[in-house]
Each structure stands twice: as structure tokens, then as C-alpha cells.
Amino acid sequence: MITGMTTDMATTKDILIRIEQDVDDQLFRQKNSGQKENQSMIRFQSILLLSAAITALIFTSCGADGNYTGREYMPDMAHSQAFEPYHEARKMTSFNGDTLPIFNGNHTHFKPVANTVPRGYMPYHLTDTPEGYEQSKALRNPYNGEQERLLAASIAAAKSGNKEKAKAAKSAYDNFLADAKEDYTTYCAVCHAGNGKGEGSIVKSGAYPTPRSYFDDDRLQLFEGQMFHSMHHGKNLMGSYSSQLSKEERWKVISYIRDMQAEHIAAANAKEFGGKPADYKNQALSAVINANTYTPGQPLGKLASLVDPNLEAVTFTKSALDAFADSAPKKGETIALNNVFFKSGSFDLRTESYIELDKLVSLMGRSKDMKIEVSGHTDSDGNPAANLKLSQNRAKAVYNYLSSQKVPQERMIFKGYGETKPVGDNSTDAGKAKNRRTEFKVL
Ligand code: HEC
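A: This is the predicted complex of the input protein with heme C.
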């Protein structure tokens, strides 16, 4: 019965009906003729027929021509309805004989009705044009504040020496970035690489050109809105991620990229100016977040203030204290504290100064006999009496900080000299900048 049948000629349903009929016929004949000995033969034949049917079943379901997968006996056997919903589909019959809906143009599914929006959709108003890209600079990452706060807390806790507090604060920061890290690893790392340098797996395989490193100067200076815009619309060779990542997820991935960038700048600074990367990471983060305040070219460049984004950026220079990593300055020697910053016209010590002052704290810790005089100096602008007072207050602010870091007060004095001890020419800006300074002298 089955010999010579091709899979195209009969459906399995036909085959099964035929088997049933054949068995019935034989049993009927046997019953009538009373030939009981034929029973085992019939059973054998049925088994043969059944296995042939199964083979046919396999063939009909695998009658693939490359584009058409054949008959489907189970839901989603060959065609997942979840994927490629807008592609053309041939007529398909499901396992229980239902015909899958095929709409106009052979589509199994339609795009959403025009002017309707999916759940959770948030509109993005900027168009994929150079003007839209320019305007995107004004967009702000809603997670910036939280990221800066968590990072600052984590670094402060690490410095506090309280291990439990440090661990908790670090994991709070890590948790904040955990989902973003996963999204980045899923969607971005194949090209941009886990470390952000652009040597991802498909780039290494040669299938794709290298996207530039996130640490190139112009990438460090990208506005977050521009990143968001490029993730939404795609950028040249990079596709759009607007359907994979929600708006919130995109902003968080940007926070994650900013973290990598801050880590990179902080490491470069620690190498150039001494100290640990953690000493610089706060400022590095806020510098890249406010992309326009990061000055490329130098490892540190200008960094915006972490505490108060309205403050002017500060510029770090090489610390004179780095020369004393294994030695101590001699009695009578005067050393400039190059990276001590005050708010303009006031004696509020800026937090950026802690990096430099912590080096002095550690020097005092190592040289137990050393006593110092902290001194403040101004340029000649303004009233000499006011300058004297300001310089005294600034010296005192430094003294107070050192004292708060457990440098014994009996080993320190502070003094303001106003404009009386210039080291530069007060008629030029560069000279004045030199004169506004904080120093210490070994007594
Ligand atoms: C298939 C490879 C590929 C993947 C995957 C990819 N990118 Fe890119 N990306 C690129 C390339 C190439 C460029 C450079 C585009 C240009 O400037 O011409 C780029 C550029 C960028 C830029 C700079 C955009 C600008 O405005 O200059 C950012 C930011 C970025 N990608 C972020 C991401 C993020 C986030 C993801 C994951 C959600 C991602 N990319 C996934 C290839 C990729």
C-alpha cells in the first residue's frame, strides 16, 4: 500500500486512515474465514504499516526546500510565531489541523495599528538629523546624581577604614550598575568589547570594523545626550537600540560607560600624579558626565567639582609631595602644596584638595618628628589687610583638615602672610596665579 508513495502524494491523515481500513479489512476477512493462524501475520503487517507511517510522517514534516519547512505537527515546531512576525509566511497548518491566520500579503502578524503605542513607550522628540544630534547635547541623564552620590559614598567609605561600611557602599554602587552591565555585555560588548576599547569579538573575527575606544578624547567629550541619541537612532555603522533597550535602560548603560571612562581617567591620573585611582575617580566621573568640562590632552585635565557643579573647574599640576615617597624634606625647607583649592574669594577648602593634603597627612605619619608651619599667600589685588586675613583663614582651613585626619595639632602651626611674600610678578596674571598659594615649611 505504501510502496511507491512519495511524501508529496499523501497526507499523514490519509495514511493513518488507510492503515485503519487495512487492519479492519483483514480482521473482517479472517473472522469470516475462521483462519486464526493468520493473526500473528496481521499483527506483523500492522507493525510494518505503522513504522512506515511514522517514516512518512517524518518525511512530510521534513519536506524542506530550504525556504519552506514542511508540515508542522506541533505548535511552533518550525516557525516560532514570536519571531519574524512581519515576514511573509506560506500557508501553515498547525498540529491539530487549524490553519494559522494568514492575512493580506501572506503575513501571519500585522504591525500595530497606526497611531497606537505599545505599553511603556516613551516618545523621543529629536529627529535623526544633524540638527537633532546637536540638540541632543541638552538632554540630561536622570541617573547622574544617583551615580555620583553612590560613587562618592563608596570611595569615602573605603577611606574610612570601616570594612563593613566600605563593603556595603561598594556593593550599593555595583548594584546600581549591575543591570546596565548586563545590558552592555549583551548588546554592546560584541563590538565595543567588555573593556570599552572597541576590540569586541565580532571585531576581532574581522567581520566588523573597529568602533573607536570609549577612551579616545572625543569620546570622553561626548555629551550623554549624544550617546542617547546615537543609541536611539543608530550612528553610521551602528544600529539602533531603541527596541532592545527602554529609555531608562539606555540611560543606565550610559552611566555604565561613564563609569568605565572615569576609571580610565582616574588610573591615568594616579600614574601621573601619584596616589590611587580611587583618589581621582569622583572628579573624573563628574568631568566626563559634564563632558564639556573635560579637557583632553592631559591625563587629568580640568575637572569639575563633585560637590558643587556650579563651581569653576580646577586644574591639577604635579604634586611637589610626590618627591618624598621614601624620604622627608629637611628642616627649613619650604614646599608648595600645588593642588590645594579654595572657592574664589573665600576660605572654603574645596574637596579636590584632599588628594594633595592626604599626601601630606601620610608624610607626617611617616616622619614622626616633623613639625610644620602651614602658610597662606595671596596676590596683590585688593586690600592688603583683607588679603592678610584671607590668607590666615586659608592656612587655618588646611590646618583644620590635617587635624581632622589625625595629624597631632602640636606638630603644626598655621600663618597667613597676605601679599607680603610674592614669588611671582604681581603685574601679570601668571605671576599673580603663582602668588596665590599654600605652602608648608619644615620647622
Ligand atoms: C555591531 C557593532 C556595534 C554594536 C553592537 C554597538 N556599537 Fe556602538 N558603535 C559602533 C560603531 C562602528 C560606532 C562608530 C560610529 C561612527 O561614529 O561612525 C559606534 C559608536 C558608538 C557611540 C558613539 C556615538 C556618537 O554619537 O559618536 C556610542 C556612545 C556607542 N557606540 C554606544 C553603544 C552602545 C551603548 C551599544 C550597546 C547598546 C553599542 N554601541 C553597540 C558599533 C557598535
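The longest strand covers residues 372-377. Residues 317-442 form a domain with the 60s Ribosomal Protein L30; Chain: A; fold (CATH 3.30.1330.60).
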